[in-house]
Amino acid sequence: MKHPTCSDSITRRDFVRATSALATAAVTGGLSNKAQAADATALSSAKSAPPKPAGLTYPHPLLTPADEFRDVSRGTPKPYTLEGEALVQARLTPDAWRLEITPDAATNPAIKDLPSIRKPLVFADGTALDLPGLLDLGRNHGVKFLKAMQCLNIPAPLGQGVWEGVPLREVLRLCGPMRNVRRIYYWGFHNTDPKQIFQSSLSYTQAMETPPGELPAFLAYRLNGEPIPLIRGGPVRMVIPWAHGFKSIKWLQRIVLTNDYKANDTYAEQNNDPESHLKTAAYSNDLPAKIPASQPVLIRGLVISGLSGLKRVEYSLHRGNSNSGPPSADDSEQWIECHLEDPPADWTSVLPSGVSSRQVLGFDPKTGQPTTWPLRYSMVSWFATLDKLPPGKYAVRARAVDLNGFAQPEPRPNQKTGRNALEAKEFEVV
Ligand SMILES: Nc1nc2c(c(=O)[nH]1)N[C@H]1C(S)=C(S)[C@@H](COP(=O)(O)O)O[C@H]1N2
Ligand SMILES: [Mo]
User: In this structure, how many other beta carbons lie within 10 angstroms of the beta carbon of residue 406?
Assistant: First the structure.
């Protein structure tokens, strides 16, 4: 699989156009005169991002093709390697796919009151939900959402797509009234070894009580306007808009309603925070090792707008290699604001055919424009140009600042709630 898609489509003319006087002035100050740093910091936090220069194309497309997401799948054999009859046996073809929803058979002796549901959906009874049944629910209750997929343990987004499906609450309603249910456990097809199961969970509230205007957990069956391919977890994948990838279980087949109050997430067993929301963080692309002094240096990457939103992306440049710069974010350093990708003027050219932005959660249904930018839980490109750098070695770092004013790597309690360390990218101007 390829890494998050990136086309090197910025031309030299774009470089020149994108160069801002602010960046040039501030970089010069930061290198030669520490006293200017305070001024420049004030400047960078007071000014809003400079506008996008005309003619510039962004380094990352908003939508990642389904087969170009970076893949994170555990277990062997991986479900997407199955073929023919094995795929049918695994119930991973559109015809064979079924979803079972059952109450938890008491496993935790501390739970005295067992869950009950009026209409469990069971394969052996012929009552399990099939794909036509799910698509049928989608006709009245379908949702679409543009989401960045990111692994809590990998310091780069995996990809971004428009996911389409049915809210989990509507699927659970098929089971009629339920009692003594505090959590929803779910997993997908894995293989015959129970030790390799990859599972996740939500609270009953998260599944059933979507607040007005908020994003529901949903069972997705389309990605970027097409059926979800096997490689991305199709026919049906759970998508949890606000969470890291480990809650978005691929090859979904089983939902268990439990009165246990504990998360069962496989990820929790490896010190990951199972309730961690998708975090605001900027990630930088690698730079060429040597850049001619006659050319501006273009730094760029992706930024995810997580739970706490995004105020800006900013960078800091140091002379020498990464060891000679400060090891982490420090507000006495000079941070310069980067350009952020603007919302597309024409969403029809970005979204898959047949998908109107008016139908996508996070967009105003009247105007078809995003209600926040970047959209919540999505990612956009950022970039800055560094002009007229004297020859020598440099290290550059970029960071996101959230809407509460926390600069990356804050406000994480630890890296196991989402990798966001400030990574230095080195280059040499020759
Ligand atoms: N069934 C199943 N679902 C899974 C996983 C898995 O190993 N098995 N990995 C999870 C993790 S940890 C991540 S980060 C995302 C990755 O999604 P992607 O492979 O579509 O990029 O899928 C999640 N869903
Ligand atoms: Mo992950």
Answer: 16
Q: Is the dihedral of CA 257, 262, 267, 269 positive or negative?
A: negative
3-state secondary structure at position 59 = coil
Report pLDDT digits (tens) over 399-413.
999 999 999 999 887
75 alpha carbon – ligand 2 mean position (Å): 13
Helices (H) and strands (E) in the chain, counts: 7, 21
Distance set, CA 291 to CA 43, 60, 331 (Å): 28, 21, 28
Ligand 1 atom closest to Cα of residue 74: 7
| Ligand 1 lined by 69 (C-beta under 6 Å) | yes
User: What is the torsional sign of CA 131, 63, 410, 308?
Assistant: negative
- 203-234 pLDDT, tens digit per residue, is 999 999 999 989 999 999 999 999 999 999 99
How, if at all, do strands 290-291 and 425-429 pair? parallel
**Cβ atoms of residues 392 and 312 within 8 Å:** no
Confirm or reject: Cβ of 335 under 6 Å from ligand 1.
Answer: no
Q: How far apart (Å, rounded) are the C-alpha atoms in residues 138 and 222? A: 11
- pTM score, whole prediction: 0.87
Q: Which residue's CA lies nearest to atom 23 of ligand 1?
A: 246
Position 42 confidence tier, pLDDT thresholds 50, 70, 90: very low
Task: Tell the residue nearest (CA) to atom 15 of ligand 1.
Answer: 245
Task: Report CA 265 to chain centroid distance, whole Å.
Answer: 19
Q: How many A from CA of 186 to the centre of ligand 2?
A: 16
Classified by CATH at the fold level, domain 12-63+279-429 comes out as: Immunoglobulin-like (2.60.40)
How many residues are given for the chain? Answer: 430
| Residues 6+ positions from 172 with CB-CB distance below 8 Å | 101, 178, 184, 207, 208, 255, 257
- pLDDT, tens only, 111-145: 889 999 999 999 999 999 999 999 999 999 999 99
Q: What percent of the chain has pLDDT over 70?
A: 84
The alpha carbon of 190 and the centre of ligand 1 are apart by a number of angstroms equal to: 11
Q: Rounded CA gap, 242 and 217, in Å?
A: 8
CATH architecture of 67-268: Alpha-Beta Complex (3.90)
Q: What is the pLDDT of residue 22?
A: 32
Domain range annotation of the chain: 12-63+279-429, 67-268
Which two tokens mark 394?
């440099």
Query: Hey, which residues does 117 pair with through a beta bridge?
Result: 178
pLDDT on residue 412: 82
Residue nearest to atom 4 of ligand 1 (CA): 249
